[in-house]
UniProtKB/TrEMBL annotation, chain A:
The keyword Repressor does not apply. One of its GO terms (biological process) is DNA-templated transcription initiation. GO terms for molecular function: DNA binding; sigma factor activity. Residues 32-98 form the RNA polymerase sigma-70 region domain. InterPro entries: RNA_pol_sigma-70-like, RNA_pol_sigma-70_dom, RNA_pol_sigma70_r2, RNA_pol_sigma70_r4_t2, RNA_pol_sigma_r2, RNA_pol_sigma_r3/r4-like, WH-like_DNA-bd_sf. It comes from the Bacteria. Belongs to the sigma-70 factor family. ECF subfamily. Keywords: Sigma factor, Transcription, Transcription regulation. The lineage of its organism: Bacteria, Pseudomonadati, Bacteroidota, Chitinophagia, Chitinophagales. The keyword Acyltransferase does not apply. PANTHER family: RNA POLYMERASE ECF-TYPE SIGMA FACTO, RNA POLYMERASE SIGMA FACTOR SIGV. It comes from Chitinophaga polysaccharea. This is RNA polymerase sigma-70 factor (ECF subfamily). Coiled coil: none annotated. Residues 127-176 form the RNA polymerase sigma factor 70 region 4 type domain.
TrEMBL record, chain B:
Residues 119-170 form a coiled coil. It comes from Chitinophaga polysaccharea. It comes from the Bacteria. The chain crosses the membrane at residues 49-68. Keywords: Coiled coil, Membrane, Transmembrane, Transmembrane helix. This is Uncharacterized protein.
Length: 188, 185
């Protein structure tokens, strides 16, 4: 089953699923898992960069979802709540792998001379491959901003760094992706 | 304003999504949740083992008390229900026998000239009496047993009377016995 990122917020779960989950109904929790597992797994995969870590992180995240579902308020967004738990677990997995997020000096990142985006084609496979090859720090910021739609401020809070560092890291990550995709176009 | 790269991502966002996780994730998750639930029950019992033990003992005691009191009440009801007329006779003879036993017991043991076995035999509820009572409970309608029990009371009374007479004769102040005897006549 393929996840639909754009429709995540509209993911439909039966009205009483959350109430049943809160009462400890495992079948209801399975329904909840089925509704969100694919989208959340894709977040884990983008963040951790490998299948094994992604699956382990997803499992740990859903254990926390199960444990704390009683605290979920009736009017809260289920998808946003689960997504935040999943993202936090992804960041913990990265930290366990000694990935540190540190403030960097704010510098203006200029597009490398000679990169004319109009002259090479963007493809999903090329971008995926380029993001996959980014250093952990760049990839994390880029994923959270571009794919998970968190603001620079929210990302700064999650990573414990300044908002300006997030912006700089993001600009550098984008530039790096451009270079990799350009390189792929040249060698093709 | 989004650049070419950002625009490309927005336009192709869904294409960046792959398939979901393998079934092993849910299998592992379900196993974890089951263990957690079992763990919670064990933890709860471990935490409150003393309370659980006290409750268990109280329940056992309550059941035992209920059983024994119920059983005893049932037995008593059974005796009075079996033979109300015999109950009357028993009250009558028991009162008289106990009164005579009290008089006999007032004499020192060496005066009686009876050993402990013989003295035990004098008591109302001796082995013969217990055997007869048991038989009556098992065969409430048996007239022979009822008659034997009445006969037992009568013989016991006669025996106690004879012993008392002998004791009184032996310890009577001269003249007193005669006077009393004359009064009785």
């Amino acid at each position: 089953m393929k996840a639909s990122a754009t429709n995540l917020n509209q993911t439909q779960i039966a009205e009483n699923v959350i109430d049943r989950c809160k009462k400890g109904d495992v079948r209801a929790f399975h329904d909840l898992y089925n509704a969100y597992a694919a989208a959340m797994y894709n977040i884990c995969l983008r963040m951790t960069n490998n299948v094994s870590d992604a699956e382990d992180t997803l499992q740990e995240a859903f254990i926390q979802v199960h444990k704390h579902i009683g605290k979920l308020e009736r009017d809260a967004s289920v998808s946003a709540w689960i997504k935040r738990i999943v993202v936090n677990h992804c960041l913990n997995t990265l930290r366990k792998k000694k990935v540190y997020f540190e403030d960097v000096e704010e510098v203006e990142v200029m597009a490398e001379d000679g990169i004319d985006e109009a002259q090479f084609s963007w493809t999903v496979a090329a971008v995926k491959s380029a993001i996959h090859g980014l250093p952990h720090g760049y990839r994390t910021v880029l994923n959270l901003y571009l794919f998970e739609s968190y603001s620079h401020r929210e990302i700064a809070e999650m990573l414990g760094i300044t908002e300006s560092t997030v912006k700089t890291q993001y600009m550098r990550a984008k530039e790096k992706v451009r270079q990799i995709v350009k390189q792929q176009n040249v060698t093709r | 304003m989004p650049d070419n790269f950002e625009s490309f991502i927005q336009q192709h966002r869904d294409e960046f999504e792959g398939p979901g996780p393998s079934p092993r994730v849910w299998a592992a998750l379900e196993k974890d949740l089951t263990e957690q639930r079992q763990g919670r029950v064990v933890q709860l019992l471990r935490k409150n083992w003393f309370k659980a033990a006290v409750i268990a003992v109280l329940m056992i005691n309550a059941a035992a008390i209920f059983y024994f009191t119920g059983h005893k009440r049932h037995q008593q009801q059974e005796l009075s229900a079996i033979s109300p007329d015999l109950q009357e006779a028993r009250t009558y003879y028991t009162t008289r026998i106990n009164a005579k036993l009290q008089l006999i017991d007032a004499y020192p043991a060496n005066e009686l000239g009876l050993d402990s076995t013989a003295r035990q035999e004098l008591q109302l509820r001796n082995d013969t009496y217990k055997a007869l009572e048991k038989e009556l409970k098992n065969n409430p309608g048996n007239e022979r047993i009822r008659a034997a029990l009445i006969r037992y009371y009568q013989l016991k009374l006669d025996l106690l009377d004879k012993i008392l007479e002998e004791l009184q004769d032996r310890h009577a102040v001269p003249g007193h016995t005669k006077k009393q005897y004359e009064v009785e006549i």
